[in-house]
Amino acid sequence: MKSVLVASRNKNTCGLIFTCLNNNYELSLLKSVKILSATNQPCDLFIIDSENSVDQEMDLIAKFKASNNAPILFLTAVESTADAIHALAKGATNYLIKVDRFIQLLPCTVELLLNQHEELCQLRKANRKLIAHIKSVEEQAKKSPYTPSVNLRNPIQEIAVPNLPDPSPQLPKEPLTLIERITQRLKQGEINLPSIPDFVLKVNQLVDSHASIAQIAKLVSNDTAITTSLIRISNSSRYRGVSQNQNLEQAINRLGIEQSMVYVQMISNRSLFATKDPLLAPLFNNLWAHSMACAHTSQVISEKLSIGNCFDIFMMGLLHDIGTLFLLQILAEVRVADIDFKPSKEELHQLIEDYHENFGKSLLQRWRFPAPYIEVTAFHEHPEKCTKITDQLLVINLSNRIINALGYQLDGSDEQSFKLQKSDTSLGLNEALVEEISAQSQELIENFKADTGC
To answer: Please, what are the averages of pLDDT over each run of 10 residues along the chain (454 residues)?
Structure first.
């Protein structure tokens, strides 16, 4: 009887798995990762039930794969499908989404994985025997007084092949969908995940250590573009004082450390939204314009309504569509390997609409961002799906709709009409206030582009 090891923190799911598989397999429950590491517990299949502890589950996959070649089945919730893609990249064999009655699919999924693994093992065994046989024949050939007429590395290369009728034509394989291509690349470990610029991390660490303005200015001055932009912004109409600022320390002092860091984040992260791919470049540029506009508009709303920390709201606006950036970067890498791969605009926009929130959530979890950031990324299009609807989430949703109405859309289409929603009125908004926010945001966006060239 085949053995199945189960890792699950959810008693209900664990009970369903055991009830479903107990008659046909020898089941055991993994109680601790330490037990796995210490005992090298053997099994024919490992089932991991994902429960929003992504990092721990990825570590679990890595530790299991280090000492066991058995297949891994990753169970994931509907709202966490992007986690399954990361699991595949880490070494999981397949995944099963926990939709209603998913347990009915589990037996056939387990049987399929075990059969495929057994066939793969047999192929590897046959391959090893063939390699050993070829080496043996080569060794005998070296001792022989004559030189064989056949190339032993490729025995059929020099053998005449009789004329045979063409085999019956095979049906062409269906082309992979965009998400299948992305999943395949992630599974093969061929994707470079986006990363926060090192310069931003260093500045954040310095600010978190309560450094002085002089210390912050000394570090920031290493980047000429940011230094020039901060001085220019500090002398703009919004911040202009009696005299013109001449150096970075004066600029940071006028803007304040928090607002200075807002602009440092914005200018530094601009490099993430760039590609040399001519097919995808318009989308990258539109995404930057959309994200930059959302950040400014979110900050305006936060200040107008006195909601949350302005810096956090600004960064949430900047990163709310980070999942779209992740998807576009993957597609750019796919096109490097296959330049003839040219998805249509309709396919690209459908991919982004279907998956950008889940991919964004997964990426921010990887970057270890606080929960409010992750919730905004995962639910900014549909806040009603979030179990805890916060004012921050409603602000980003509102900002997203306002900038779409201003024309900052991913597909570059014309301005949309803005419709006030019930969630907007719960924040204390009316149409007049929305118009005021829109006008102020548009002015900020235009000034930022003029001052920074971004």
So the answer is: 88 88 88 57 86 80 85 85 80 84 86 86 77 70 51 39 48 68 70 69 82 86 83 81 81 87 83 85 92 92 88 89 90 81 86 89 85 92 89 93 89 72 84 91 87 74
Is there a contact between 307 and 429 (Cβ–Cβ < 8 Å)? no
The CATH H-level superfamily of 274-452 is Hypothetical protein af1432 (1.10.3210.10)
**Are the beta carbons of 418 and 431 closer than 8 angstroms?**
no
d(CA 357, CA 320): 8
| Burial per residue of 160-185, b for 16 or more beta-carbon CB atoms within 10 angstroms, e otherwise | eeeeeeeeeeeeeeeeeebeebbbeb
pLDDT at 161: 39
CA distances from 287 to 225, 442, 448 (A): 21, 17, 16
Contacts of 446 (CB under 8 A, 6+ apart): none
Question: Where do runs of H (alpha helix) occur along 209-342?
Answer: 213-220, 224-234, 248-255, 257-269, 281-305, 310-319, 322-337
pLDDT at 211: 84
pLDDT attached to residue 148? 42
Pick the CATH number of 3-110 from 3.90.1150.10, 3.40.50.2300, 3.40.50.2000, 3.30.460.10: 3.40.50.2300
pTM over 0.70: no
What is the rounded CA–CA span in Å between residue 454 and residue 154?
Answer: 58
Collapse the DSSP code of 5 into the 3-class scheme (helix H, G, I; strand E, B; otherwise coil) and give the result. Answer: strand
The structural domains of the chain, with segments of one domain joined by +, span 3-110, 198-266, 274-452
Backbone CA torsion sign across 82, 63, 193, 374:
positive
Spatial neighbors of 173 by CB under 8 A, at least 6 apart, are none
Residue 62 near residue 55, CB atoms below 8 Å: no
Predicted pLDDT at 375? 93
